[in-house]
Amino acid sequence: MTKLSTTFATLAVLLPVVLGQAAEWGQCGGIGWSGATTCVSGTVCTVLNPYYSQCLPGSASSTPPTTTTGGSTPTSTAPASTATGLNKLAQAAGKKYFGSATDNPELTDTAYVAILSETSEFGQITPGNSMKWDATEPSRGTFTFTNGDVVASLAEGNGQLLRGHNCVWYNQLPSWVSGGTFTAADLTDVITTHCGTVVGHYKGHIYSWDVVNEPFNDDGTWRTDVFYNTLGTSYVQIALEAARAADPNAKLYINDYNIESTGAKSNAMLALAKSLLAAGAPLDGIGLQCHFIVGQVPTSLQTVMQQFTALGLEVAITELDIRMTLPATDALLAQQETDYENVVKACMNVEGCVGITVWDWTDKYSWVPGTFSGQGAACPWDENFNIKPAYNGIAAALA
Ligand code: 9MR
After folding, report:
1. ∠ at Cα 233 (227, 238), nearest 5°?
2. How far apart are CA 380 and CA 396, in angstroms?
3. Per-residue confidence at 379, pLDDT binned at 50, 70, 90?
4. What is the position in ligand 1's atom list of the atom closest to the CA of 172?
């Protein structure tokens, strides 16, 4: 990929320039930084990664904290973290990463980027939107990677793994695809070109790709989108083969939600995985999204993961969040802590579960309130970047 270095510059331009002494939490250094390099009293300029140094509270000899304290959600039960960071704990436990989704608009928030870039907390990033079809091939044969490259560059600069998300999905399709009329041969060419070009663009930079996203309805039947309607189930293998040809080293996944408990939908995914493997299709893993509700985490999550790993596949928790009806109360936050702990424990108990990704780490940028009216507080950090009890639930499971 040739554009990554230039997109570092793009990201740097987005970050505000501070003159004089940098304020607490302000930027104080990094490649391309031309603002203040000293910090106000009581804070110390701390290198978070080659591209970002930040004024963190403390003196030069103190260890920088990974989180802040105080904030708008109830804090009476918010524990002081003794963890060394979720990614560090995950890796010490034999997992490849603990990671987070992110999205381009929030990368203008320097305090957000600073925490996202802490590799003790996050060893992996997934772009929430910028590698999807509508973002990368808005019209046929015209590819744009600008936003995806920004996220890829951030991960690369931080030394974080990258999950590609996604090649083929019924949603966030440009109308030329979703509303197109294609012969089977034509749509095969469209899929092959799209997956081949996008995966090829990020070749060598991606740990794993969600090649096909959400192929099933909740009752386990196939979604009747343009892909299924034109090609039947064969579109999945077509996409996987195009991805494999474009980046032989990326792990290729099918990713879905509501497959986290035994039942019709997870059975459908199991049957698909078996038939693909029997056909010699290049499938390496299954992503379990894990968009859960407080108090309703499925108890068969570990069993389902083991059903997939028994096939020789890896699994990952790819989009974890656990939402609640607002306002957040201490009781709900305590239940959420238990729920996060149980989800992460399930992954810990399955050797082939390679990592856990939260669908953004802070409530400030969660997709939940915009989709589920009256619900939110789904992430391990609150909207002010304070850790919630959920954080310690995750840390306890990883320890
Ligand atoms: O986080 C994404 C949000 O910003 C978009 O508006 C939304 C549109 O469909 O997609 C969100 O991410 C989804 C992911 O790509 C697939 N699984 C469900 C996620 C939450 O909706």
Report:
1. 75
2. 13
3. very high
4. 9
- Cβ within 8 Å of residue 309, ≥6 positions away: 315, 350, 351, 352, 353
Q: Is the pLDDT of residue 238 over 50?
A: yes
State the DSSP code for 365. Answer: G
Report the pLDDT value the prediction gives residue 23, as an integer from 0 to 100: 72
Q: What is the mean pLDDT of the chain?
A: 88
Q: How far apart are CA 295 and CA 9, in angstroms?
A: 44
pLDDT in tens, 184-194: 999 999 999 99
How far, in Å, is the centroid of ligand 1 from the Cα of 7? Answer: 24
Q: How far apart are the first and last CA of the chain?
A: 37
* Residue with more model confidence, 27 or 15: 27
DSSP 244: H
173 CA from centroid of ligand 1 (Å): 12
Q: Which two tokens stand for residue 260?
A: 């986290």
Query: Under DSSP, is residue 83 helix (H, G, I), strand (E, B) or coil?
Result: coil
CA of 35 to the centre of ligand 1 (A): 35
Three-state SS letters, 145-206: CHHHHHHHHHHHHHCCEEEEEEEEECCCCCHHHHCCCCCHHHHHHHHHHHHHHHHHHCCCCC
Q: What is the pLDDT of residues 277-306, one digit of tens each?
A: 999 999 999 999 999 999 999 999 999 999
- Tokens representing 107 are 């990368």
**Residue among 73, 81, 85, 87 nearest 392 (CA):** 81
Judged against a pLDDT cut of 60, whether residue 33 lies above it is answered with no
Ligand 1, atom 1, lies closest to the CA of 128
| pTM for this prediction | 0.83
pLDDT of residue 70: 32
Of 239, 211, 215, 238, the C-alpha closest to 225 is: 215
CA distance 324 to 73: 13
Is the pLDDT assigned to residue 357 strictly greater than 60?
Answer: yes
Q: Can you tell me the distance from the alpha carbon of 277 to that of 270, in angstroms, rounded to the nearest whole number?
A: 11
Cα separation, 396 vs 381, whole angstroms: 16
- What gap in Å lies between CA 363 and CA 383, rounded to an integer? 5
Question: Across 208-248, where does the E strand assignment appear?
Answer: 208-213
What is the torsion angle, in degrees rounded to the nearest 10, for the CA atoms of residue 276, residue 278, residue 279 and residue 285?
30
